[in-house]
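ingest -> validate -> predict -> emit
validate: passed (alphabet ok, no gaps, 102 aa)
predict: started
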Amino acid sequence: MSLLCCIEYRLDPFKTDAFEVYAQDWLEIIPACGGRLIGYFMPHEGTNDVALGLIEFDTLAAYEAYRIRLREDERGGENFSLAKEERFILQERRTFLRRVTR
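emit:
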């Protein structure tokens, strides 16, 4: 059973361009650290302060191993620091979902 990690970001709506640069960096970092990146999704119409990141893992243990690699990754660390310094993310929530099958 695979798990989908859905990361919901609440953004500063005046800093979405900065968040998009941050998300673009994850497009390379996440797969290099072992996550199957579905993608990052930016606000387009309607709500202007919500973005999503979707990453798939085989198991929760695979996710936990990925998180360790991500914390040790130099580019990952730089991206986390950028978000902290620029403060374009106001809130971040993770939800783990499983696919419905028969």
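The chain has a mean pLDDT of 96.
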